[in-house]
Every structure is written in C-alpha cells, then in structure tokens.
C-alpha cells in the first residue's frame, strides 16, 4: 500500500478550490458581476438553470472550511481570487472589502499552518471587461497586469506561491470557441485572439509577481490529456497529433520560448496576425519556477473529416466500454503517468505540481455516510501512477486534489460532485465523504 511518506517530507499535499465555484456572496461587499454570473442568466446554458450566486457560501464559511482542510491533514490550500471582488469594474477603483476578505482567508491559512497557494485567474472575468471584448481584446494584457499588481501588492507579503492562470486552454476553447462556458462566444475569430492574449497574460503576470513579490514561487497551470489514436491508421494518428497540439502543447510551448507549435498544425499559422510576424515570441516566454499540471483523463481520437479544421473527434470512454466517471471521463492511471513524463521531457520544465486531479461520481448521503469507494479507487490508482513518475526522477513537488467540497461545476451546475466533502446545497451542510477520510489516513502514513 502506497504511503504519503514515500513522496518525501517536504511534499506539498493540498486541496484546490476556485472563487466562482465556492464563494457565493456574488453581490456582497462591493463585488462586481463576473462573466459566469451573467452567463448563468442565459436560458439553457447551465444544467438545471443553476446559478453560481451562493455556491458553497465559502465567503461566510471559510473558517470552518479551512478547519476541515486542516483536519483532513492537508498542508496546502489552493484558492483563487475573484478579480471582480478586487476591481469590481475590472480596472479602476480597488474594492477594499474584497482585499479584506482575502486577507482574512490568507491569515486564517497561515494561522492553521496551511500554505496559501493563490490562483490569479480561475475563469471569472469581470463582466465589465467582457463588455469591452474580454479575452479577445488587445487591452487584456493591460487590465490583467493592473489586477496582478494590485494582488501582488496587497498579498505578496504573506503569499509566496502564485499560479497565474488556471487552464488557459479550458477557458479559451470552452468560452471563446465552443460557447459552452462563459462568456459563450464561438468561432475562430474569437478563439485565436483569446489564445494569444492568454499566452501574453500568462507571461506578463509572471513578470509582475516576480518584480513585486520577494522570494515568490511562480507557476501557471495547464490542462492536459494523453491523446491516444483510436487505431494505428495514419489518418487517426495524424488526427491524434493535431488534438495533442491543441490539448497539450498550445500554451506551454510559447511559455518555454518555443513559440506556438504551428509547424505541426498549419492552421495555427493564423495566430501570426496577432503576433505580427512572431515578434512576440520573447514576450510570450516566462521562466516559471514550476508548472501546474491538471489531469483527469486521456482521450481517444479518430479522424473525422466533418469536424472543421481539427478533422478529429473523440471516441468516448462509454462507447469503448472502459471504466469512466460520472462525467464520462476515462479512468486510467497509466495515462496520468505517461502525460506527466511527456511534460517532463521538455527538459526545460524545472518543477511540476499536480495542481488538480480528482473524479466526479454520483454521491449520496446515506445515514450520514457517503461511501464513495469509486473515488477512493481513483485516487489510489492516480497517486500510484504519480509515485511511479516521481520515483523515476520527475521533479514533482506537490499534489492538489480537486476538490475540497462539491461546488459549482460550471455548465454542469451543482449536480456534478467532485468533492472530498459532500455539500447539501439547500442547507450548506458538509459531510466528509469516505474518500476524505481515506485521504486523512493516507496523509498520516
Ligand atoms: C478544471 C477546472 O480548473 C476546475 O475549475 C473544474 O471544476 C475541474 N477541472 C473539474 O472539471
């Protein structure tokens, strides 16, 4: 049986949450609207018509939730700052009450011996900025730099661990190409500038923190999925290669100074109009202290000529009759191991933190107990895979479980439960799931 001590005594063990998914109090103490507050008002965008307005009420319950984190034995608390709490209009006047709230969260973490790991941007753009074009606007870098500066100056004396962006591929593709996430925009004319502005903000944000926070440990996070061709037919192999570029390479390679991976996917040459003949290559680069990898599942890809541009589509886990979670995401610890190795093979990545990993299942409280054995099995399998990669020399410094408690799962609403703690959204009652107790026991050994 794997023990947490096998990862070394300095290993970071955390839980991760995000402002929009947990805080609630969406219009309290001067907070401005976010794109998710606005998006959730549009018919049919979020399952069950759910709204993120109250979420887990973390804004009022943070003390109890941090105590629970501590009680489960974690030593890191990853959370994000809601931009529109700090700058309700996205730019302009700073909202003191917003600063105050995060000061309290940070101080409480420190009091409990939890390392506060702060994400600057976890998908909740101020709605005021979306009205000005949001991530498609070239002014995004100016807005983001200002926001990062305010955060660094307010919290940098106590917060040393910073994540600049959460999954840029996630919010640019779902929010600006597929329209499934806020702000619900679609098409390449939105996606391409959003990509480029996110790439620039990821590096500019790193520079702001480096300049303003002494001894900062700076990273940014990437979603990643091993891409497996459905068959060894050349068409499927090529389709998988294009998907791999989009899912795994598009955001890290510019950060590492390699520019966009356009040679292997001609379509991406279109980004050239935004980079003015690639003069931006230097500005897209930043020497991150670590990268955060967020992995849940691999994807199996086949050629599909109907799909515009990418000409590829996924063969779902359920169709292939392989184990999967309630999201339909394949459970495959070996692929987690292989994707970690793939990112390590860049050679220029210094340290890796698994900044998210976890699983969604249909949990139920029965007589006060949530017996989520499938989630326990998932963690056992994935932690074993991570240990194998670490044992073989990958410099993995930490692991953060997604997520502390069930929360607002974006367009899936509140029904998709990923937490170690069950939340009854009617009463806000928390019930530690058996996976939470499992983690507590694991972290003691
Ligand atoms: C990635 C995102 O960062 C997080 O917000 C989301 O809830 C999880 N994955 C699960 O989908």
From TrEMBL:
It is an enzyme of class 3 (hydrolase). The keyword Ribonucleoprotein does not apply. Pfam families: Glyco_hydro_1 (PF00232). The lineage of its organism: Bacteria, Pseudomonadati, Bacteroidota, Chitinophagia, Chitinophagales. It comes from Filimonas effusa. Keywords: Carbohydrate metabolism, Cellulose degradation, Glycosidase, Hydrolase, Polysaccharide degradation. One of its GO terms (molecular function) is beta-glucosidase activity. It catalyses: Hydrolysis of terminal, non-reducing beta-D-glucosyl residues with release of beta-D-glucose. This is Beta-glucosidase. Its EC number is 3.2.1.21. PANTHER family: GLYCOSYL HYDROLASE (PTHR10353), LP05116P (PTHR10353:SF36). GO terms for cellular component: cytosol. One of its GO terms (biological process) is cellulose catabolic process. The active site is at 167 (proton donor), 356 (nucleophile). Belongs to the glycosyl hydrolase 1 family. NCBIfam families: BGL (TIGR03356). InterPro entries: GH (IPR017853), Glyco_hydro_1 (IPR001360), Glyco_hydro_1_AS (IPR018120), Glyco_hydro_1_beta-glucosidase (IPR017736). Substrate binds at residues 21, 122, 166, 296, 402, 409-410.
